[in-house]
Design goal:
- By secondary structure, this protein is an alpha+beta fold.
- It folds into five domains: 3-57, no CATH class; 76-386, Alpha-Beta Barrel (TIM Barrel), CATH 3.20.20.80; 460-489 and 639-772, Sandwich (Jelly Rolls); 501-582 and 592-621, no CATH class; 776-880, Jelly Rolls.
- The protein has 15 helices and 46 strands.
- It is globular, with a radius of gyration of 31 Å.
């Protein structure tokens, strides 16, 4: 019998996506067995092998449509929880872990921008390697069995340099960004078509069996459209029409685009979107950016958004008919190199997200949202297959009930009062509602989740410093002395000058963002009889600049540094300087700290000097603004690529075990071992000034331990109740906005790692440290009435404290345990008036030496007789080791 005698006709069309293909796959196997029942065993095995290979290397196309209620995937309505993870803001080695952590957190969809300026480095020259391997990222999402939303844009904003648009495009004659401008539209369409074709080539759209269920064109243009006048609306309509012409087989979205034409779906971006409605009754209610934190700027406070408020916003969105919600960001990551925008956006893009910059779940935020997602998913059928009934339960209390013909019933009870808890009655049952909270009842009876009651454990993370270890292959390796190599740049013009001009040129127009740095140099003559020389006083330097920062050198010595801030880039200063009799060289190093990333006509915002004067001369103020200035773009070390393997020897390094401190314009190089362990790594730059860092040629990014003001408001504990804003719950007053800079583990070799630092101002490189990000302990605080449940097959009644240490560690000791009325926060719990003295021994019995444990708040475990009229809680802190 030949193989052809046993034919298996595999029909691929109209089968479900791999996420739902279990039944279809089993049916194919059953048919194969039946059709081949008369075949020999060898032939059968061969046929089954071919069939398995077919399923391993192909995916069936599936249909994605929508109506007013939700996305519909192969005929099934979908309630979707999405998470933004940007591929260039982490590294390929991290992608599978990030996606898996999101999936474990109850996420269905990964959402990412496509970063035009990271891909099209010059017109028609594309790059998709390393952190920019978009196809690899999408396939990792696909392998995890998750969907993907591709926000092609290609304008992204996103605190990304120049909003994601290539800087070179600004210098194409006649180009104006994001309006009805032919050069811009031409390049935008070419790039979008390139990306779409790349995805089609790899069969990554759902219509081809891939994970991409939606794509986005443009980004948050609705609030800007009118500012562009007659060019605004035609451009938006063109963008929508152009996107639809790509024929990707899945819906297109436009976020914050109030006039998005059918069939493009307009979506909401905000801290709260429960009151948002799309611009057509035929479109579903979608929330593409829910901000669970906020970005940081150098010199500003550290913003935080409480998990209770995030959960409240999400629950309210689904309560009011939402069907897809996306966290921006779920993992913020890192603005490696010079990719941060702003200006002044930090290298860290942690965003206080559920997964932190280093890839670790941020607890309790991640865990609280996971419980929320589980609760919402219990309501999916009723939510998407019925119309809500709204009942008012008070002036700021209401319930939305979803009940379908099959009898399925789910309810969301909201207390919108931001100060007062309330007891309400619903269907003859009393419910206690904390202020600013939503209770979720998947069966319209039992509360399985309340947004204000956080029962998830809290992790205690610390940065464990590791002194830089010299990497020497010799058996006589000296572990005590790290050898540094130093190269100091000349202040001002190195090599040949680029050009000479009377007056000032714009910084960005000159560098075209090939570097942060531009030298402006001139000279001033001082007569030996000048009064300030005779009196020993100092003249004053007066500078005005469009931004962003500046170092002033006189006769090769640093005199003063100045900068704008996170909200205002232009700055001016008045500072004393030292001048000598005769000729004095004035060298001003102008710096950008990320280019403008959003706003109408943002590409025209410039930087650089506008006025330079010196006061204190006998004959009045000297205005240097009209002097002849000599210009040089960038640094010599940059030009010679001395941070890369092939450029390391392009300068004469001076070897020393005692590198100079407080030396401006200094390059430092050291060869070091990787830190021990496998924890994520941060580079501690608290003792340095400002500059750039590289490891093995990879760009760590800008460092600048600039401190936040002590005159602004910071909080020890945030009151989650009431509307959130970025300044509501800030910490870090008087502290550096960013101290540690993420260095991915995958960038390290076991030894022979080349660390290169460029320091602008001066610091102490001997104090540079690697620090391991380590979870040293976990806490939990749960009350007796905390809702707790299992998804299947029953609702669980017992309140439970669950503790889990990170991988490769166990609960080594119980630092604190109290059942009763404990107070405080993780790391500072204290016993209350009511306390069960056996609390510690109970927790130790259940948890000690285990990776994870669950302690139930039952009468068998704890003495509930004392303080019987008081609501009791269990607070626990354990050490992971």
């Amino acid at each position: 019998m030949t193989h052809s005698d046993c034919k298996i006709d595999v029909q691929c069309n109209n089968t479900h996506h791999s996420l739902e293909s279990g039944r279809e796959e089993k049916e194919h196997w059953r048919l194969a067995m039946k059709l081949c029942s008369v075949a020999s065993l060898a032939t059968l095995l061969f046929s089954l092998l071919l069939l398995s290979l077919f399923f391993a290397f192909s995916s069936a196309a599936y249909n994605v449509t929508y109506d007013r209620r939700s996305l519909i995937i192969d005929g099934q309505r979908k309630l979707l929880i999405s998470a933004s993870i940007h591929y260039p803001r982490s590294v390929p080695a991290m992608w599978p872990g990030l996606v898996q952590t999101a999936k474990e957190g109850g996420i269905d969809v990964i959402e990412t921008y496509v970063f035009w300026n990271g891909h099209e480095l010059s017109p028609g020259k594309f790059y998709f390697g390393g952190r920019y391997d978009l196809v690899k990222f999408v396939k990792i999402v696909q392998k995890a069995g998750m969907y993907l939303i591709l926000r092609i844009g290609p304008f992204v904003a996103g605190e990304w340099n120049f909003g994601g648009v290539p800087v070179w495009l600004h210098y194409v004659p006649g180009t104006v960004f994001r309006t009805n401008n032919e050069p811009f539209k031409n390049y935008m369409q070419k790039f979008m078509t390139f990306i779409v074709n790349l995805m089609k080539q790899e069969k990554l759209f759902a219509s081809q069996g891939g994970p991409i269920i939606m794509a986005q064109v443009e980004n948050e243009y609705g609030d800007t459209e009118s500012i562009y006048g007659d060019g605004g609306k035609p451009y938006a309509m063109w963008a929508a029409k152009m996107a639809l012409s790509q024929n990707i087989g899945v819906p297109w979205i436009m976020c914050q685009q109030y006039d998005a034409p059918d069939p493009v779906i307009n979506t909401c971006n905000s801290f709260y979107c429960d009151q948002f409605n799309p611009n057509s009754l035929n479109k579903p209610k979608m929330w593409t950016e829910n901000w669970p934190g906020w970005f940081k700027t150098f010199g500003a406070r550290d913003p935080h958004r409480p998990p209770e408020d995030i959960a409240y916003s999400v629950a309210r969105f689904f309560q009011k008919g939402g069907s897809l919600q996306n966290y921006y960001m779920y993992h913020g990551g890192t603005n490696f190199g010079r990719t941060s925008g702003g200006p002044f956006i930090t290298t860290s893009y942690d965003y206080d997200a559920p997964i932190d910059e280093y890839g670790l779940a941020r607890l309790p935020k991640w865990g609280h949202l996971k419980e929320l997602h589980n609760a919402i998913k219990l309501c999916e059928h009723a939510l998407l297959n019925s119309e809500p009934t709204l009942l008012s339960l008070g002036p700021l209390q209401e319930v939305d009930i979803y009940e379908d013909t099959s009898g399925a019933c789910s309810a969301f009870i909201a207390n919108m009062d931001d100060k007062n808890d309330k007891i309400i009655e619903f269907r003859n049952v009393s419910y206690q509602l904390p202020a600013w909270s939503v209770s979720i009842l998947p069966d319209c009876k039992k509360v399985v989740f309340n947004t204000a009651k956080v029962g998830s454990q809290t992790s205690i993370a610390e940065m464990v410093p590791e002194k830089l270890q010299p990497s020497v292959t010799s058996p006589a390796k000296d572990l005590k002395s790290l050898k540094w190599e130093v190269f100091v740049e000349k202040a001002g013009i190195w090599g040949e000058a680029d050009f000479v001009r009377n007056g000032f040129v714009d910084h960005i127009n000159t560098t075209k963002d090939t570097t942060d740095y531009l030298w402006y140099t001139t000279s001033v003559q001082v007569d030996e009889n000048e009064e300030f020389l005779r009196k020993g006083s100092q003249p004053m330097l007066l500078v005005e600049s469009k931004g962003h920062a500046l170092h002033a050198f006189v006769n090769q010595k640093l005199q003063v540094s100045a900068s704008g801030n996170g909200t205002v880039s232009p700055f001016k200063f008045r500072s004393p300087i030292s001048l000598k009799a005769g000729k004095n060289e004035i060298a001003l190093l102008s710096m950008t700290v990320g280019l403008q990333n959003a706003g109408p006509y943002y590409e025209w915002v410039g930087a650089g000097l506008t006025s330079v004067k010196i006061e204190g001369f006998s004959n009045g103020i000297k205005d240097l603004s009209t002097y002849t200035w000599t210009y040089k773009t960038g640094l010599q070390g940059e030009h010679l690529s001395i941070y890369k393997a092939d450029g390391l020897n392009n300068v004469n390094w001076v070897s020393t075990s005692e590198p100079p401190e407080k030396q401006p314009l200094a390059w430092y190089k050291a060869v070091v071992d990787a830190p021990p362990g496998d924890e994520p790594i941060g580079l501690d730059m608290i003792h340095m000034g400002k500059g750039l860092a590289w490891l093995n040629g990879e760009e760590v990014g800008r460092y600048w331990p600039r401190k936040a003001s002590t005159h602004e408001a910071c909080v020890d504990k945030c009151d989650y109740r009431g509307k959130f804003s970025p300044n509501k719950c800030s910490t870090g007053c008087g502290e550096p906005t960013q101290r540690w800079y993420h260095v991915p583990r995958s960038w390290f070799k076991p030894s022979g790692n080349i660390l290169v630092i460029f320091e602008e101002i001066g610091g102490d490189p001997t104090q540079i440290r690697f620090s391991r990000r380590k979870i040293k302990g976990v806490c939990a605080l749960v009350s007796e009435d905390h809702p707790s449940f299992e998804l299947e097959p029953r609702l669980e009644d017992k309140a439970t404290v669950t503790l889990k240490c990170p991988r490769n560690s166990r609960i080594s000791s119980v630092k604190f345990a109290s059942f009763g009325t404990p107070t405080g926060m993780c790391g500072s719990y204290t016993k209350g008036d009511c306390h069960d003295p056996d609390s510690t021994s109970v927790v130790e019995k259940v948890c000690l030496n285990k990776k994870e444990c669950a302690v139930e708040l039952t009468e068998q475990n704890f003495n509930k007789g004392s303080c019987s009229s008081t609501e009791k809680k269990l607070a626990v802190e354990v050490v992971c080791g």
